[in-house]
């Protein structure tokens, strides 16, 4: 089971304020624990929405609309993510509970969401096989 820990943005992260060295050290230690446990797939912080681009589809079948950031409502933004693969929902919650306060000021908020597997979305064996082949191709690219 894959889960994404979505770190919510704050006014500080949206202002582009960088984390303290202490927080960077704590996050690095946490990520090292995830690696040692063999559950970490990816983890990154995101730049503020002032450098973001939002693409929306306002009309069915219509052309996409591009809007440059910044965007309002920092608490609705994402400041970073950690993607893990674990055996259960409970294990994902345990790992999320161990993450240091992502902003270091008591404002941190993490949203934990399970990632859909293709078998949960599609009934077509060909679609599932194509998805598996693409994932294998990605794994091979990372090995190279």
Question: Outline of this structure?
Answer:
The chain is built from five helices and six strands, in the order βααββββαβαα. The chain has 144 residues and is α+β, with helices and mostly antiparallel strands. The chain is globular and about 50 Å long.
What does this protein look like?
With 144 residues, the protein is α+β, with helices and mostly antiparallel strands. Helix content is 38%, strand content 24%. The protein contains 5 helices and 6 strands. The strands form 2 sheets. Strands 2-5-1-6 form a 4-stranded antiparallel β-sheet, covered by helices on one side. The protein has a two-stranded antiparallel ribbon with strand order 3-4. Strand 3 and strand 4 form a beta hairpin. The radius of gyration is 18 Å and the shape is globular. It starts with a strand and ends with a helix. The model has no long low-confidence stretch (mean pLDDT 91).
